[in-house]
Amino acid sequence: MDDIVKQALAKWPNVPSCTGWLMLDRRGNWRMRDEAAQASGSPGVPIRHEALLGFINRNYECDERGQWFFQNGPQRVYVELGYTPWVVRLSVDANAAADDALTLKDQAGNPFEPSAVFADDQGGILFADTSAPPRIAVLHDHDLELFADHAKLADDSLSGEFRWNNGVALALESVRLDDVASRFGFVQSPAAKA
Q: Could you name the domain of life of the organism this protein comes from (predicted)?
């Protein structure tokens, strides 16, 4: 969390939180949702300002109930999640000695080291990382082909294995899309839980 945010929290500790105004979509885009977007259920307008994106990413956290938020100075802005609290991009690591070395990075551009991989019943791929507690992230849909190039899938496409770096094979486990939030302990829509 930024120092300026910590100072604002100390100075104004009782600023009410808000919900519905910020969304992380399934492709890792932060979106502003005005009243019209909230009323219509649309995802809102993508945020493109680099400094604002950096500020959001540095001050993105989770509360004790599994609700993700952006700490905007003294105000907690709860985030609507398009799917998971994290979205990762898979790419070939151009700096690695091995030709097939892969890298995963989250929507903030930070490394994501997978410890488990899942396929949901709608064709989405999810990764859990090695942090404690583990973060869960959906794979950006543009990277599904690269994932398939490094996976050995069973006929049901919901099991098999993903070949990660250094010969590590992660078993591909199946998960129902409707069970992901409860299984991994996050709230997709904090406004609905208020």
A: Bacteria
